[in-house]
Amino acid sequence: MPEGSFEPTIMFFGLTNSPATFQAMMNELLRDLINTGKVVVFIDDVIVATETEEGHDELVMEMVKRLEENDLYVKLEKCK
């Protein structure tokens, strides 16, 4: 652009609180899993940490089930 590069300082269309709203929704959906200390959520990052692989698989399945029930999804290529 002739005036230099343009970087917005706010979200357009009145979406100024969408990250905080999304974080609150994720906290509510996974509240009991977060309270166990085995799940941590930061906006769209969910970390699952367990002692055993079996417990890990069960926890991941429960988390994915809750996301699906609320019309959210996980991109497998972004998962480790």
Overall description:
With 80 residues, this protein is mainly alpha-helical. It has helices at residues 18-29, 31-35, 53-69; strands at 39-42, 45-48. It has a two-stranded antiparallel ribbon with strand order 1-2. The protein is elongated. It starts with 17 loop residues before the first helix and ends in an 11-residue tail after the last helix.
Please give the structural blueprint:
Layout: H1 18-29, H2 31-35, E1 39-42, E2 45-48, H3 53-69
Give a quick precis of the structure:
The chain has three helices and two strands.
Given the C-alpha coordinates, what overall shape results? elongated
Cα end-to-end separation: 39 Å
H/E order of the elements?
HHEEH
Q: Please provide the count of β strands.
A: 2
Kindly name the structural category.
mainly alpha
Arrangement of strands in the largest sheet: 1-2
Could you tell me the mean pLDDT? 84
Q: What percent strand?
A: 5-15%
Largest sheet: 2 strands, antiparallel
Q: How many H/I helical runs?
A: 3
Defining traits:
single chain, 3 helices, 2 strands, mainly alpha, two-stranded antiparallel ribbon, 80 residues
